[in-house]
Structures
1.
Amino acid sequence: MANSLDFDQALNELDVLLQSDLSTAQKKLAEYEKEFSKLTSVQQGRLRIDRAIGYFFTGEYAKALDDLHQAETLITSSELLASVYSYKATVYIGMRDYDKALSAVAKALALVVNIDDITIKRHSYLRIANIYSEMDAYSDMGLYANKVLQLAQETDVRDICHAKLLQAIYLLGVKNPDTFDAFEDSRQYCDAKQFPLLATMSMKGKGMVLQERGDYLGARAILLLALKGYEAFQFQLEISHVHALLAENYFATGELVQAKSHAVKVLTFPDDNSYIEHKHIAYKVFAELMAADKQFEQAYEYSRKEQHYNQLIFDESRMKTLAYQAAKFNADEQAREINLLNKERELYIAQQMVKEREYTNMLMFITILVGGLFFLAILLVVGHLQKRRFMRMAKMDALTGVLNRGAGQDLGENLFVQVAARGEDFCVILFDLDHFKRINDSYGHGTGDWALKKVVEVLKPHIRNGDVFARIGGEEFALFLPYANEAKGLDVAEQCRSRIEAIDTHLSGHKFTITASFGVSGMTKDDLSLDPLLHRADMALYTAKSNGRNCVSCYQDALKCDKRATNPTSELARQP
């Protein structure tokens, strides 16, 4: 076990056992736990993922979630993190926390998009399709199940088996008449390829289809076989569901003793949200049994409990719908923000919209003039407000919310003229984030955007009202400080540097460090515009980069002799 390669193979075999022989898999897990301290962090993370899967089958969701949290701290690869997030989503669904489940799905999808390995991508799509199945989001489930089949080769029998089952569930969800045949095809394939748990799930699906059609005897035989299959895996949630279906089945054929027996077994399972649909069926059967036996008082009590669980089912369905709609809305909002990053295109669109609005206002003005001056006034006010809104949009950086390069420099120049006319001080601070390209390359551009917004978020509350804060490049920012000398600028720059370094990045979903380098320049009596201050601050920023980054450098006359600093073609220490 101490051998890394041998244990990797053992974990691969354990993944298969968790789908085919849970009891053996649990024994293997216990054996491997004894060697935990000898494993690499990646192997420890994989072992925690496998143990979480075992806990999920037995309904121990809190333990499963704890193991997945530990796994997330042990691994760094996008492939394994995508698995952790998708399994977390599955566990959150079991706990009926749909908002967190969809948030975990979003994190998994963000990682999967950047994964080139087809096998890992296919496995991730499978888990995501299964999660959407639990959310009753059948269109998305069918979409990702179909993607799996498109990516699968003939030798990928496990993934094909799982995808066939998900396609059958999709057809059941949309009431397709071919559902029974799809479940039978899935069962035959999974059984032939020796995946008994998935074959058992397909078998239960066949039984549910027949029971909905009123073929109770045919459904009963299949459901009893499915019950044996689930009992072999100790899959408590599915065992409870099959007992509920059998209780309903036996009652429909008048076999009341057997119906009561299965209903009683349903009530032995934990009274938590995972079992509410099953207990709703059981109490419905009990109520009908008592009514048939003319025990109307007990029938009434059971009927009340049935209504209670029916309300819980309704509330849960509404929670799923609201969570799903909220997730879709957030995804749309995120896409909108990404599109706004293209500033030139956004500005062009804004200008076109202003022109179209002005043209529309002109036509409406002519039309409404006949109707009265009142409507004309309303139209002009709306047009004016709309134009002002677009003008504000053109001045702001869409990602961070501070001024963009053009607007920031124009305002800084105006303030410089005012300060110079009064003979007061003026200071410029330029800074950019260190190794920003590494953040984008390692964690994706979404994380890079998060870092830029977070830097602005922590600095903005500490900027004076009269100062100007602008984003002048990809990861480069400027601060214009009127009525502040160079010493004050150094103090402000150092405060900003320490606040950036103290940013806690775990909320981004990743763990990394953000630092920045600063260049400071104060106004001299020879300065007639803002450009010399910007040039000197830029040279000071070069010096901060060459001094090891994450520091503050002030422009000094001695820098003029440093060719590396004064040469405009130099790239010294300026790599992101």
2.
Amino acid sequence: MSRKHPAVPPDGLDAPDLRRIAESAAADSGLLSLGGVHDWFEERRKAIRMDVRRIPFAELQRWGFHPVTGNLAHDSGRFFTVEGLRARSEGPDPVSWSQPIMHQPEVGFLGILVKEFDGVLHCLMQAKAEPGNAEGLQLSPTVQATRSNYTGVHEGSAVRYLEYFTDPGKGRPLVDVLQSEHGSWFFRKRNRNLVVEAVGDVPEHEDYRWLTLGQVRRLLGVPDLVNMDTRTVLACLPVAPPDGSLEGVTADGSRGAAVAALTASLSAQAPAAHTLPELLRWFNGLRARSEVAAQLVPLTAVDGWVRDTDEIRHTGGQHFAIVAVSVEAGNREVKGWTQPLLSPRGTGVVAFLAKRIDGVLHVLARAHPEPGYVDLIELAPTVQCVPDDHAHLPPEQRPRFLDQVLAARPEQILYDAVQSEEGGRFYRALSRYLVVETDEDPVVPDDYRWMTVAQLVALLQHSNYCNIQARSLIACLQSVW
């Protein structure tokens, strides 16, 4: 099943840029030591105040339910709305359902500014709190803003450093790609993921610090510290130089062989179970044959959901609820506001099953349909679900590979940390992110394929291939080597 030719054809960044990225990814110290980064973050945690409390819908300010459609919207007509969605999937076992969904047609900015210091590329990272964060402060991109934010609809102060991502004279792009958001919670939502190298001096601010890529990847091993928006941007940035080596990367202990296999998987030159053209043919074939359809409907037309005074919930208590919060923040563009948030009913599991093929780590990706995607199907992790939603089902009806992932022995687990989803729209949305290695040869259904990490990263240079959960896991894998 293996190939002798490269898994990924040459594309994207040139060799010098790839080398600089790799050197930064291997650097555990920079302008600050890793200990200094932790000290700065803890100091900002004490200084940045955000108080969030649940409120009834009646206490929302400038938000309200439409008298006919029941849709929940801001009186400016901007930000986002909570509407209904009706979806159906045809085929041998047709299924249809309806649900609430967030609709935000704006394209936002998720941007990391980079700059060389002492010959090493550094990322300008922000200590930022969001109302839905479980632990408050997180390590966030330089810029994280919706169009409503950066055009001033919120009537707050300007978004800091935005000009480096909008003015071509202030920065050179290394990554610039539209990527999707959660396809079960957002309807066709996309953000512009950017990495831009600054031209000239960059003003300092106490909420921001320059970190190497190596320091950020170390922090990805800490639960609920690096936010989802940082993870999705980092996933789009290739971390291996063209010769496939990673200077400064070492593997020790019993995990050494697995780490070496992962290091090989990061290289575009590594052999793979399938070539990229073969994978594209498989994936686009599934998309072309897909019989999934989705459309927005009024929230009042959604079946199986009820609206109480303080939440919109599923009658069975599953999936998620729409809630309302009041926020007071000391260091944000706006100091206080109210808003709806989506609150999941349980901790998710997001996992790649991994296997070494000819010494190269492959992950099992799934072509996964979700009603909120622009193209309805994107590549997802092997497992992506909330186990509580399936606890009542017999084993044969539970999500494929879920039980295998949850039963993994400690020595099989390459990565395991609870991370949060986006805190600006989701309330305490947590998922357990895992990469589990198997030495078995599991039966692979037709909607799954073994892929190298480099192949996934190559697809991430383009829109609508890898979903947000897969991108998060790709970034988390960077903390392993």
3.
Amino acid sequence: MRPVDIEALTVPGILALRGDLLLTAVSRPDLKTNGYRGALRRVDLGGGGESAWTHGAKDSAPAISPDGRWVAFLRAGEGSGRAAKPQVHVMPAAGGDAKRITGLPLGAGSPVWAPDSRRIAFVARVPEPGRYGTENADGETPEPGEEAPRHIKNLFYRVDDVGFLNDRPQRLFVVDAVAALDEESPAELTPLTDDRADVDHPSWTADGEQILFTAPRDWAAEDTIRSDVYAVPADGGEPRLLVRTLGTAARPVVAPDGSILFYGNEFPGMEDVARNTGLWQAPWPSGDEISSPRRLTGVETVDCDHAASPPVVVGGEVLVVVSNRGAAELRAVPLDAELAELNSLRRLAGERTAVKSFAVDGERIAAVIGTPESSGDVVLLSGGEQRVLTDYSKALRDTGILPLEELDATAPDGYPVHGWVVRPEGDGPHPVVLMVHGGPFAAYEWKVFDEAQVLADAGYAVVLGNPRGSAGYGESHGRSIVHGLGTVDADDLLALLDEALKLPNLDGDRVGVMGGSYGGFMTSWLAAHHGGRFRAAWSERAVNAWDSFVGSSDIGWFFAGGYAGDDIEEQRKRSPLTYAGKIDIPFMVVHSEQDWRCPLEQAQRMYVALRQNGVAAEFLLFPGEGHELTRSGLPRHRVQRFDAVLEWWGRHL
């Protein structure tokens, strides 16, 4: 895989399944337009391949009405203004033209059909007048630099890759989609929630009378990352708190028995980090009561991926996606479970693969599954068998996908370490790059990883590991580096590297280290404390100094204390910048100008310190990009970054 081959990364996303209609939204980078192209595709359940369903340039988020008559989806146009924002469109499921039914200034979120197959719920950000291209009270539309100052009175006021929050709160809407089809233009819509708090994850009650959603604890009255489950009448009224969680809530739904299911984290103390996401259940409260939930899945072994799908009840079980040793598995949780451990949950799919999304209609299940040979294909699960229905990764395979070889190592304290190596073709000896993932409560997975493939195609063996601190190996594994960054996680990575270097065609004298975010932190840390192991380092979007990260990062106000502690001396002890004077290998600092997760000052401070110390340090700065450059940045920037990576390792390895 070469840098320009990112165009072959065609990835299916959200699935919609009803009757014989199976739709998915696909997206791929497009270097010519320097953007991402996406459309809805119909997948033949009989195995006849797939075909175009819509022909927009940026279509996504399909949803089929319960009666099977309509398809709602998001379509974004070209250029700027409202037309370029994703708006809800509706078209007949039998085929035909799509009609735009929303026209909100900043676009709309994914559509969710009501049981009556007429109304659609969605969330959307609503700007204050005079901001983000809207008119102010004087009928003027100020340029961004001429807008009034933002008056901020809370800590959770901005998010990387989204922007400022308080001046465009995310609110809940309902639109009569069928009635809107007869209107010449989208009607003005009134939000069901006020502007004091961002709300998310709408779903309907079975009678269509109310909409469930999540919102910050106590309607964002205080600074917190905690959230709860609320409901509001679909015709308007006061939101009601239904479930007070023990931490957070996401993707709430009403089960057939009337109870409420949701994903959530449990925080035993104050704001917390590295906690497994569980599946929870709570009774629908009577009167003015507020329900307390119970956890269906085990705290230590089950970590649910709420991004894959809301919980789906099939018979007496709930289907969820669970992280497990680099796999993302579709598992079945009994509705009457009580802290069920992972090994007791029936696995439907995902062994040594990654289930990224799924949809259910009756007893049929469709899923998007990535594998070591693909970035994702649509698979039909039926009768215990899996039938692959698409071949979106053919173009990717044609570039030459190299295999993931599993590695198991042992850390100095006897702890088992899991990872992989991707080796180039040929006898070698090949130079080696140790690549460290972000998070840290994240993981490399059993699926194609473009960064490893590009480097391996260029002749480098790439070592990928999930050291302590990673997700999917138990909550205690993830929390083992809380207030201990750079300790056992560093030991694990070096142990895995040593294991890889036992392979006969790897060159232990030509080794580099690279990573982004937490991986950038670890790259800086290893360069300072174990620099003799490496010839050079590539540190990207890194956390280098916890003391300034606290106030400069969008999540620093809770994340820094969670991982490094609140004591300033301990923060400095856990900061790579403190040890910049120990770094003496060539060092590339890479960052994005608009990164709010690990702000630019983190890169600038490290770069200046290294240059002042006489290190051969360089600085690669991407304009206009945020923290997600390598995954969703402008395609040309992604290729330019790959070119720079290859040039750097070409020089030093």
4.
Amino acid sequence: MKPKLCVIDDSRIVCNGIMNHIRWDEHGIEPAGAAMDGEAGLELIRRVKPDILITDIRMPRKNGIELFRDVLALGWPCKVILISGYTDFEYAQEAVRLGAFDFVSKPFLAEEIVSVVNKAKERIVAESEETARVRGLERRVRESLPLLRQEFVQLLLRFASTPEQTAKRWDFLQLPLAMADFVVLAVEIDGAEPSVASGGILDIELARFSLSNILEETVAQATRGIVVRDGLSRFALIVNAGPEADAPGQLAELCREHVERYSRHTVSIGVGSPAPGVRELPESYRHALAALSYSFFSGGNSVFRYADLADRPAEVEPYSSDSEKELLLYARAGNKTRALEALSAIYAGFDDKRTQVDPDGTAAAFLKLAEALYDVLAAAAGKDADARARAASELRSLRAEAPRTLAAWKETLDRLCAAVCDRIAAERTHESEADIQRSVAYIRTHLQESLTVQSLARLACLSTSYFANLFKKQTGFTVAQFIIAERMGRAKELLAEGKQVQEIAAMVGYEDRVYFSDAFKKHTGVTPSEYRQRILG
């Protein structure tokens, strides 16, 4: 847009010469009007709002200096160029001191007027560009204020500061808080990290946006405060503490309730200690995080006050070493029922709120149990390198991504304990099957010897009762039944080969021929001679 030019002079020749005999369009200037005295000139200025004004100092009704003062009073930012005679030089200097752009002495040439107007135009363009630049900066600052507030508050939560150091930035960022009597609340979205790990980053971003709005509205209804994001799934709330002692705790409960009611998420909240000034904000924040960590026991949707933690004992042994030894004893035996019962007994110590201290220590204790169970699993794998490698890999994964709640730890340990017991039981079954197969092979190759349950159990390095039960479970026969069946089967083969009954009796472990014949008839329904007659015709 071209700058507009007005001329005010009591000489018609001057006005006409400046307005009509100079080709202002070639200089990018728009002639906008002229007046013959100061009063008419002021009306013209009000109506046209020129960017450049040329006025004579000496005029009837209102001189140029008075007109200039009126322009200043109007607050219209036009560049005023004064025309002065020799005797008006001091007036011109005064006008320049007041802020007039320049002055031209009579008599003057058209080129002088063009030159000073072009200078005024250049100044207008430069100032317009500078104004646009400043406004752009101001706009960007306004747009950046939320982010700047976030960064500034995060610094206040982590590093001690003084009111003198923070006051200017506090006012500049327009923080909606009084600079005293704070409490910090740490708010965690329950179950957010598993959702992100499964690819739900968009869901988490939408959740953070909606939950931030809910928290801001809830805080605004109760007190002055600010909500900032503090990581992927956490918010930090700095609020001015109310007159009631538990006002921050009540606010935390209200935030938890509103999130549950107005969203499909739940949150856990830790309430920090009072912070009289900005210097104490980091400590209040640390205490809020310490309180928040106790959601490990609740599993979420809960509020914990740092003040309540003082009532908890400094150190409690939630389970004894004997409990751990009992668990591992049952695990090594593959006794899943008893091992899970031993785990449940260990859990009981952690379910008691009086013993719920130091969530990190509790998680470390559970990791120690997991490591012990994995040691049992690796030992059970024996020479199976692949199985040992799988156990080591699972343990590394558990250390890297440990469960975040007591319930999740219980589920993990139960699953691990059951897997260890199943693996050991399977290994024991496999070994037992091999023991029985070796016993069966031994029986078949030693039918002529005296075979008893006791002797066979000793060869298998098992107790007599366990061996007898295991033998029947795998073969379907008692040891005695199996031995008789194998002996009679072998006797049939020998009879078919034409061996003598006396010889056969000795070969299948019977010293007395009559006793063998009675046993054979009892087993087959016929005597050995009758069987051979039937087979051989």
